[in-house]
Amino acid sequence: MKKGLKKYSLFSLVRNALSYHQHWQEAWRSPEPKKAYDIVIIGAGGHGLATAYYLAKEHGITNVVVLEKGWLGGGNTGRNTTIIRSNYLWDESAHLYEHSLKLFEGLSQELNFNIMFSQRGVINLSHNLHDLRELSRRVNANRLNGIDSEILTTEQVKALVPIINTSPRSRYPVLGASLQRRGGVARHDAVAWGFARGADARGVDIIQNCEVTGIRRNGAKVEGVETSRGFIKANKVGVVTAGHSSVLAAMAGLRLPIQSYPLQALVSEPIKPVLHTVVMSSTVHVYVSQSDRGELVIGAGMDAFQSYAQRGSFAVIEHQTGALLELFPIFSRLRMMRQWGGIVDVSPDASPIVSKTPIKGLYLNCGWGTGGFKATPGSGWVFAYTIARDQPHRLNEPFNLERFTTGRLIDEHGAAAVAH
Amino acid sequence: MLLIKCPWCGERDAHEFSYGGEAHITRPENPDKLSDEQWADYLFMQKNAMGPFLERWVHAHGCRRWFNVRRDTVTHEITAVYKMGDRPPERTA
Ligand SMILES: Cc1cc2nc3c(=O)[nH]c(=O)nc-3n(C[C@H](O)[C@H](O)[C@H](O)COP(=O)(O)OP(=O)(O)OC[C@H]3O[C@@H](n4cnc5c(N)ncnc54)[C@H](O)[C@@H]3O)c2cc1C
Ligand SMILES: [Zn+2]
Q1: How many angstroms separate the alpha carbon of residue A376 from the centre of ligand 1?
Q2: Which of A120, A241, A266, A338 to mutate to test ligand 1, by most ligand atoms within 8 A of the CB atom?
Q3: Residue A315 and residue B41: Cβ atoms within 8 Å?
Q4: Hey, which residues does A151 pair with through a beta bridge?
Q5: Model's pTM, two decimal places?
Q6: Distance B87 CA to ligand 2 centre (A)
Q7: A100, A267, A373: which to mutate for ligand 1, most atoms within 8 A of CB?
Q8: Is A70 buried (19+), middle (13-18) or exposed (0-12) by CB count in 10 A?
Q9: How far is Cα B83 from Cα A242, in angstroms, rounded to an integer?
Q10: ipTM for the complex shown
Q11: CA–CA separation, A288 and A137 (whole Å)
Q12: Which of A10, A181, A281, B82 is the most exposed place for a label (fewest CB within 10 A)?
């Protein structure tokens, strides 16, 4: 790393303790935007920041700016329930998400930033015969792709999660599950901050509170972006704005196969450790884990209608907690502390779009919908490749925009158990 | 909670309704003459507008009839409800 970035270590902790933690170096600069860059990345979520980081690290391109209308990591990156796994059904998805999981495994070391990646295992429950069959199909597909995945009986689920209700008389009995032991959770903010710090150290400018208001093109070629802080020239522009992708695409005169919906999550008061793995169920629609602070992190559903309001309906939460209590009666007297929503970008086949576009120099990374946090490093890695070389990497080639014309969709609806 | 005014039943909670997405997407007249691009455009491409948006709803747990709505996707304010086949009413300030 360049530019006199101070490494975080036990010694730096001690040194800074001596000066009462008053002199920690800023994690990234806040420079004035330049008039022109080689590459503009729109959106400083995890995916945008990872893209900038890998552009610098893997491709040596550092004349890059990341523009963020709010604060970095304040979009879905900072609003998600942080579940990480790679046990997707189709080869294309399995390879992409597994690449990302592998990057996650070394990320704290690589970034010199503790992203608190905890591979505590992810359990997907099944509640009926159809679930069970789909589940074994997926586990077998995963294994063929070299991804760790195993089937659990009801008793094995109970042994791993003693507080779960496995009564055969419950409305949706637990008949079995799949387990990916390498799956888990990470600290979402830390992922954004770590990539931001790493990119900044390599010379990337990160400009917060700078909204892109227009994409300037000359015929079928990109020339730069209009922003709330003036025009910035660039021959290559990467759009990584999740729920706002259609808005940005419209600035360039494109329509996308994307719909934006609010997705909610909530957090309980802290309790002693009772849940040591991540538990998900698509049938009753629950996904829950316990944070290191003891809070339960609970994912709720999507609102049924399109919205950019960044909040969801209360009825969705009511439905969600009902399902949660069915599985975990022990939680019935817990109080919920916080609740929020993020705007997710849903694609027709529940797979992302990481692609070139009909406009030269304009690149698109969106459609991650309800499940893109787990893909943060992998997405940035393949997107950086795509922008740097003006051609997709083998891993994201299938995730192109043309698939909606050719019909070669990657249908992960349902196949992915729960979409997260 | 979203209150939606069904043209036949009046104001009801949004949960009585199902959502039909973007309105005024008409099925192509000559499907066998369409190019792949035109099919993709018809099937998949969306306005997904931020702000005023024309969309369809059906009163699923009521009269089960479809109708159109103009709703702001940021504030959720509904500024028009009109029947299927009708054109959206002129916007008033
Ligand atoms: C409640 C919830 C739970 C979720 N749970 C999971 C989970 O458990 N596991 C999982 O893998 N995924 C999950 N997801 C999905 C995941 O959060 C996203 O797929 C992922 O974080 C997307 O990252 P991003 O960097 O692409 O988008 P974001 O983090 O949303 O970043 C996009 C950025 O673009 C900025 N932007 C938008 N418009 C402009 C503009 N005009 N100019 C400049 N900047 C702009 C935004 O302010 C934002 O910061 C969840 C999502 C939500 C909402
Ligand atoms: Zn009605």
Answers
A1: 10
A2: A241
A3: no
A4: A178
A5: 0.96
A6: 20
A7: A373
A8: middle
A9: 33
A10: 0.95
A11: 24
A12: A10
Spell out the domain ranges in chain B: 1-24+45-93
- pLDDT averaged per 10 residues, chain A (length 420): 77 93 93 98 98 98 98 98 96 98 98 98 95 94 97 98 95 96 98 98 98 96 98 98 98 97 96 97 90 95 94 90 93 95 96 98 97 98 98 98 97 60
Query: In B, what residues contact A, Cβ < 8 A?
Result: 1-2, 14-15, 18-19, 21, 36-37, 39-41, 43-50, 53, 55, 71, 73-76
- Single-letter amino acid, residue A173: P
Pick the ligand that lies closest to the CA of residue A340: 1
Rounded to whole angstroms, the maximal C-alpha distance in chain B is 44
How many angstroms separate the Cα of A34 from the Cα of each of A45, A269, A405?
A: 21, 45, 38
**CB distance A167 to A173 below 8 Å:** yes
CA dihedral A225, A230, A231, A234 (to 10 degrees): -70
Q: Which residues, other chains included, contact A380 with Cβ-Cβ below 8 Å and sequence gap of 6+? A: A46, A47, A48, A49, A50, A51, A52, A53, A54, A195
| Best mutation target, B25, B44, B77, to test chain A (most A CBs within 10 A) | B44
